């Protein structure tokens, strides 16, 4: 087909009215349709009215013609679909149009009159390059509707029966590439490695001029490539990318024959290993300047093949710089290393610092100095550091412990320099600290990164009159510190640094600040004044000196250390303390400091729920943030997790929600300013979360009234020191006994070193350290023979060959807590929970009894008053009235008490069973015991004949074909023999096989292993897998007995008509009894199948192939109107292709709300992936079935528009070799969506994709 735009004639054309009259002529138009207008009769007037709104629309009419060849007759629906596709491609979606199909000529064609002016925005749209757009869309329509391919700028090229639309000029180039390279270029739009090698003449010339094999290796390494001999050929080479597995034949740019005749036999790259070692050194020093042999071993074991580990380790030790070893207790030492690059970086920083030191001191006005002193009451240590910092030439470093008044002293520095005529700039590693400096009086407060960016762009305006004051200098990485010192020295500026080398270090390589502090010290602040209470202040002083045992002793003696049984109990106890303190001190700031983000989220969620239930937070709403969905309301404390200079918020700053607006949330910051945070639109900001808890990193530099520390195994010296020195009034520690048994063990955990050391601060080792070789092969002791189990049912089958029996590897696993001890712990927890509940119930009963007593007292008083009535009748009436009132009050009190008791029990649930209790335990021992329990139960279920392939049936069907005969049959066992092998099968009273045992090799296991043993093949052999699948398929088909039967001509194809009939007559999954849930169909059991989305539409049928029967699962595919248009099939015997059905997208579940979206080839592949998902994640998972066809890629792209930006998209590829590469196009679509997810979020409309969820 072809499409073209009809240009308007000179002097104007017919206009909307004239063109409509032409295209609607009765003798020509066989089908008329329109869009964006009310009726066809008023279409021209409506389009003209819209066009008249825009006075600049000189030519509002766009006349389009689509034409098919004479032998092709599209239906009205196909014509409408083609027009809509062209409108979308041209950018006319939402515009008004009228169209008519003309049949007055041999070739059917469509006239389309389009209004260029949009009916809502009134903007004029002029499509660019519409000639090429129309032609390419014609090719897409031809592929979608099955028409022949016409000629034009674009052509359809078929690769392995898959069609690709390419430009004519690229056809010859494409045909010269391999099939894999063609797919890479078509699906990704990137140049393939083959094309790069073929077209790069400069690279060819360099390789042709190479004088040795090493020069060839070096040339390729410069462009990220490597040369290797081809694995499957005796001669020839391949060129691969160093960062991926992509490879191509070297003949595209290098002739193996010519190179071998010119350079001799091939030689390996001698510098490749050195290059790899340099990369490893970079990785080892990425976040620390000094590393140990243990760090080397851990990296090699994770990233390097075992056969190369020791060789590379030797080369690493040769290239690394050996530093002085660290002394350890017991006359032991710990070897330390660094790289030459790290030492060079630190030496450059020290050179710049020395240059600053040699600068003359900045002139200062004595009056300005005295004025700064007079405004403040500084301690002697502060005053000493203040004066020494002023006297420093070009660099001065002050170490100040947490809470010693560093900011107070820095503001005095700022005023003295500013009032002396200098430009003072406050620097900080984070935005929150930079904003705090501005709040303290600094005119300029900037981050180090912003300064380095300005210098890179040539916008830095420092000079000799500039004074830099750097706060929290210990958090600045070494590379940034080096650049900062070099910039200051180059421009003659002065830099004063303040920090604490014992607090949290830089995330990247650090430690340089501590070394600079020793060389250029300008004082030290040691007197802590932040903590008001004497005990807290004394403990903080111990922590600042690294004396964790003395500090923890104070916390234990003052009752501020709480150790409970489990981590869950510790979190609950901390939460209760937080609630009580908030009620007692509502005006105090509170902060929960923990280490893991998962714990942060738990605390924030629980506190938010509590505040909403108590009414402290109102009008709560779920919000989409950068950290997932958060529930916030008016009164919620929030913590900003990103910086937005437009809003005036910094990463780490805190605020309180004060109200809601139209698409906005209003928050009041700590400085009193109110910001309006946009929640929708282009300016949307999601960098915030609930702010009641946070990691220790978020609290560094802050002063908070009350701090609650959640101690875990990850807590080390710097993190513990920061967390326990933030408080103004009180800090409390909560921990689990399984984490630390007492305060001494907790102190030892906190004393573990987290701070970083500069390599230049250590001397070089006199002798090189000798590496210890890595043990690449684990030496195992020979297994002990398994003793007969006296509790085992059935006879014990002896080992006739005399060989030792192999034990189950899991039987050697001994948990730290056995099932018995864990069950005892469960009973103790249950008893303790019952005791706590009994105490609280007793409180409720006491309150009830008190209320009843008050009712009785009131009744007694009313009876006494009734006795004073004049007549007996009046006395009886008054007494009856009092009795009725008292009875109603007693009933109300008892009802309220019962309701409170039930609410108390519901609010404090205890696991209903031992298994539920194990699921709540975050311990390896509990998980292993739970696995043992559930696996035993599953095995017990699977011994039912209808749920398991009978081993005796295997021997009768498969064994007979491979020479196995029944040798002995006794009560409880059957023994089969073939040559020198024996297999024993344990049976029940009915003769049904339960378990099997290879008596010679002492093997047992699954049915598949039995089939492999009987066939004498490896368990991974394809024929073993096929035979096992057949056995299970027959067993499941017999157990289910579905009503409908599908007849397949072979094992790969199935007719769509038969499939539709099978689904219509099949057995609904909901009609299958749940006692059959353990029956497997393909990868999933029926129980697992019920958890899949759209399970209510699943139906079961028999599948009859070449003499076999199997159970089949059928899922329908529906269009936007809900009509069934196709089907997906899953069986236990592999993938099926449906004949007579166009490939289409199927969406199971709601992709708009899904947290996880699985994109799979077909239902069978999706099921294999489904069983790998965690049960708790399945409810929020949707599935997309694509078949990998090009016909579904556009639908997939549209459907992914509706997937939330934070959703995890997982790709499930088929494992069959015949289907390898089938999902290449899907991968490209997913990759494109990941790169454009932000744009899709902004422009996402209300359209649906072609695949509609069931």
Automatic annotation (TrEMBL):
Keyword Isomerase: no
All residue ranges annotated as the TraI-like middle domain in the record: 181-268
Composition bias type Basic and acidic residues, residue spans: 805-819, 876-886
Residue span of region Disordered: 761-819, 860-888
Keyword list, A-Z: ATP-binding, Nucleotide-binding
Gene Ontology molecular-function annotations: ATP binding; DNA helicase activity
InterPro entries: Coronavir_polyprotein_1ab, Endonuclease_MobA/VirD2, P-loop_NTPase, TraI_M
Xref: CDD domains: DEXSc_RecD-like, SF1_C_RecD
Entries under SUPFAM superfamilies matching the protein: P-loop containing nucleoside triphosphate hydrolases
Limits of the MobA/VirD2-like nuclease domain: 22-147
Pfam families: AAA_30 (PF13604), Relaxase (PF03432), TraI_middle (PF22863)
Record's protein name: Relaxase/Mobilisation nuclease domain-containing protein
Protein source organism: Insolitispirillum peregrinum
């Amino acid at each position: 087909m072809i499409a073209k735009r009809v240009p308007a004639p000179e002097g104007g054309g017919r206009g909307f009215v004239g063109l409509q009259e032409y295209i609607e002529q009765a003798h020509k138009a066989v089908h008329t349709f329109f869009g964006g207008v009310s009726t066809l009769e008023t279409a021209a007037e409506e389009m003209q009215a819209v066009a008249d709104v825009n006075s600049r629309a000189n030519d509002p009419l766009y006349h389009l013609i689509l034409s098919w060849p004479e032998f092709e007759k599209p239906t009205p629906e196909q014509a409408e679909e083609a027009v809509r596709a062209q409108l979308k491609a041209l950018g006319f979606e939402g515009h008004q149009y009228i169209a008519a199909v003309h049949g007055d000529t041999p070739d059917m064609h469509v006239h389309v009159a389009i209004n260029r002016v949009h009916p809502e925005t009134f903007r004029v749209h002029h499509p660019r390059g519409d000639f090429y757009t129309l032609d390419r869309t014609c090719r897409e329509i031809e592929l979608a509707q099955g028409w022949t391919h016409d000629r034009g700028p674009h052509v359809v090229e078929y690769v392995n029966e898959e069609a690709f639309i390419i430009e004519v000029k690229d056809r010859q180039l494409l045909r010269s590439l391999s099939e894999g390279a063609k797919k890479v270029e078509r699906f990704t739009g990137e140049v393939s490695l083959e094309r790069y090698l073929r077209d790069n003449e400069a690279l060819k010339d360099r390789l042709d001029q190479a004088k040795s094999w090493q020069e060839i290796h070096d040339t390729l390494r410069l462009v990220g490539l490597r040369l290797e001999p081809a694995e499957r050929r005796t001669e020839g080479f391949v060129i691969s990318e160093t960062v991926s597995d992509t490879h191509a034949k070297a003949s595209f740019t290098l002739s193996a024959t010519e190179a071998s005749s010119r350079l001799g036999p091939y030689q390996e790259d001698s510098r490749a290993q050195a290059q790899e070692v340099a990369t490893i050194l970079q990785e080892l020093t990425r976040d620390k300047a000094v590393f140990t042999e243990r760090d080397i071993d851990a990296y090699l074991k994770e990233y390097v093949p075992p056969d190369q580990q020791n060789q590379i380790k030797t080369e690493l030790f040769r290239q690394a710089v050996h530093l002085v070893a660290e002394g350890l207790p017991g006359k032991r030492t710990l070897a330390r290393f660094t790289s030459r690059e790290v030492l060079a970086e630190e030496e450059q920083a020290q050179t710049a610092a020395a240059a600053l030191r040699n600068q003359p001191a900045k002139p200062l006005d004595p009056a300005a100095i005295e004025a700064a002193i007079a405004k403040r009451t500084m301690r002697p240590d502060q005053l000493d550091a203040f004066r020494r910092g002023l006297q420093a030439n070009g660099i001065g470093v002050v170490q100040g412990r947490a809470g010693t008044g560093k900011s107070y002293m820095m503001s005095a520095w700022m005023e003295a320099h500013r009032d002396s005529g200098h430009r003072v700039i406050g620097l900080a590693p984070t935005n929150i600290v930079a904003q705090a400096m501005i709040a303290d009086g600094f005119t300029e407060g900037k981050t180090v990164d912003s300064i380095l960016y300005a210098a890179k762009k040539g916008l830095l305006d420092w000079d000799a009159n500039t004074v830099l004051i750097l706060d929290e200098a210990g958090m600045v990485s070494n590379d940034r510190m080096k650049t900062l010192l070099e910039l200051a020295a180059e421009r003659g500026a002065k830099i004063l640094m303040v920090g604490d080398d014992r607090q949290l270090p830089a995330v990247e390589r650090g430690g340089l600040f501590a070394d600079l502090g020793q060389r250029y010290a300008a004082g030290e602040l040691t007197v802590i004044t932040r903590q008001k209470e004497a005990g807290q202040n004394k403990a903080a002083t111990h922590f600042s000196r690294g004396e964790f045992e003395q500090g923890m002793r104070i916390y234990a003696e003052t009752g501020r250390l709480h150790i409970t049984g489990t981590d869950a109990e510790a979190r609950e106890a901390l939460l209760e303390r937080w609630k009580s303190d908030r009620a007692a001190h509502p005006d105090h700031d509170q902060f929960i400091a923990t280490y893991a983000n998962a714990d942060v989220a738990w605390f924030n969620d629980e506190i938010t729920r509590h505040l909403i239930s108590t009414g402290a937070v109102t009008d709560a709403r779920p919000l989409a943030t950068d950290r997932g969905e958060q529930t916030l309301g008016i009164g919620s404390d929030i913590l900003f997790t990103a910086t937005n200079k437009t809003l005036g918020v910094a990463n780490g700053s805190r605020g309180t929600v004060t109200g809601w607006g139209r698409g906005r949330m209003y928050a009041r910051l700590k400085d009193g300013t109110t910001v309006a945070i946009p929640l929708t639109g282009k300016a949307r900001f999601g960098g915030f979360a609930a702010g009641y808890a946070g990691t220790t990193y978020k609290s560094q530099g802050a002063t908070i009234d009350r701090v609650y520390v959640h101690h875990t195994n990850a807590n080390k010296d710097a993190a513990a020191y920061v967390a326990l020195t933030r408080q103004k009034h009180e800090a409390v520690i909560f921990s689990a006994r399984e984490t630390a048994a007492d305060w001494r063990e907790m102190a030892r955990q906190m004393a573990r070193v987290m701070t970083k050391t500069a390599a230049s601060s250590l001397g070089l080792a006199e002798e090189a350290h000798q590496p210890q070789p890595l043990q690449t092969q684990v030496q195992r002791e020979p297994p002990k023979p398994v003793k007969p189990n006296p509790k085992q049912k059935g006879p014990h089958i002896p080992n006739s060959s005399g060989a030792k029996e192999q034990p189950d590897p899991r039987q050697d696993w001994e948990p730290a807590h056995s099932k018995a001890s864990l069950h005892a712990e469960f009973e103790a927890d249950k008893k303790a929970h019952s005791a706590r509940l009994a105490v609280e119930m007793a409180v409720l009963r006491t309150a009830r009894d008190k209320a009843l007593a008050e009712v009785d007292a009131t009744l007694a008083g009313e009876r006494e008053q009734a006795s004073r009535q004049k007549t007996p009748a009046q006395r009886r009436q008054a007494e009856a009235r009092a009795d009725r009132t008292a009875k109603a009050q007693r009933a109300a009190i008892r009802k309220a008490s019962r309701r409170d008791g039930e609410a108390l029990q519901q609010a404090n649930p205890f696991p209903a069973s031992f298994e539920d209790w194990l699921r709540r335990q975050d311990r390896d021992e509990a998980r292993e015991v739970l696995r043992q329990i559930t696996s035993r139960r599953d095995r017990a279920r699977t011994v039912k004949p209808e749920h398991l392939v009978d081993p005796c049936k295997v021997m009768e069907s498969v064994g007979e074909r491979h020479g196995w005969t029944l040798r002995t049959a006794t009560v409880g066992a059957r023994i089969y023999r073939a040559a020198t092998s024996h297999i024993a099968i344990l049976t029940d009273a009915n003769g049904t096989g339960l378990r099997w045992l290879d008596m010679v090799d002492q093997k047992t296991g699954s049915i598949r292993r039995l089939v492999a043993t009987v066939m004498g093949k490896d368990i991974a052999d394809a024929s073993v897998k096929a035979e096992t699948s057949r056995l299970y398929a027959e067993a499941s088909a017999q157990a289910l007995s579905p009503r409908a039967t599908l007849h397949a001509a072979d094992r790969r194809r199935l007719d769509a008509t038969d499939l539709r009939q099978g689904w219509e007559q099949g057995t609904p999954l909901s009609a299958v009894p749940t006692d059959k849930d353990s029956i497997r169909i393909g990868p999933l059991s029926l129980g697992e199948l019920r958890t899949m989305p759209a399970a209510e539409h699943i139906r079961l049928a028999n599948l009859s192939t070449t003499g076999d029967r199997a159970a089949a699962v059928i899922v329908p595919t529906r269009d936007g109107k809900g009509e069934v248009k196709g089907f997906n099939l899953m069986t236990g015997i592999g993938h099926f292709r449906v004949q007579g059905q166009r490939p289409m997208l199927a969406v199971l579940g709601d992709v708009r709300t899904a947290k996880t979206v699985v994109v799979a080839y077909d239902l069978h592949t999706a099921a294999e992936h489904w069983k790998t998902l965690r049960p708790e994640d399945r409810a929020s998972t949707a599935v997309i079935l694509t078949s990998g066809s090009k016909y579904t890629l556009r639908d997939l792209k549209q459907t992914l528009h509706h997937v939330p930006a934070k959703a995890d998209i997982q790709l499930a590829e088929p494992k069959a070799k015949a289907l390898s590469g089938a999902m290449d196009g899907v991968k490209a679509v997913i990759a494109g969506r990941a790169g454009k997810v932000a744009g899709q979020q902004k422009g996402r409309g209300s359209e649906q994709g072609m695949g509609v969820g069931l």
